[in-house]
């Protein structure tokens, strides 16, 4: 299911965060509809853009570099597309749990690594959140923010 409002809200917040206009806390506060798997997955990945231990803007030492900006643009293109999210379920929020890893003699971290590899092999991970580079290329030919066009 695609929730245009969720995707539009998140895409706009990403643009503003990368431009240094809103803080990490503002970006973290964006709500997305849990039924839109694509918006949820992008929101989880967004968490990796910032330091969540303190309030800051994407400026100075917290600025997003050019490689990071290219990745964020890909996310925004996806959010502005009519494409469903086709990747298998996977949470990008991975916390190191050393007590559990110790109790399981390393099995927990090994399992997380295997699940990540399985996830990345489900499609062309270079195109994520699109499943294939052809989907990304198709949508990149029709930019909505720059053209002024809305979804159909």
Describe the structure.
With about 150 residues, the protein is mostly helical. The protein has one domain (about 5-85, about 125-145). Helices cover about 50% and strands about 0% of the residues.
Cα-atom radius of gyration = 17 Å
The low-confidence runs, each spanning 5 or more residues with pLDDT under 50, are none
Beginning-to-end CA distance, first to last residue: 15 Å
Could you report the average pLDDT, rounded to the nearest whole number?
87
- Domain count, please report it: 1
- Give the biggest beta sheet: none
- From the spread of the alpha carbons, the general shape counts as globular
Q: Report the order of strands and helices.
A: HHHHHHHH
Number of strands: 0
Structural class determined from secondary elements? mainly alpha
* Number of helices, counting only DSSP H or I runs of 4 residues or more: 8
β-strand percent reads under 5%
Helix content: 40-55%
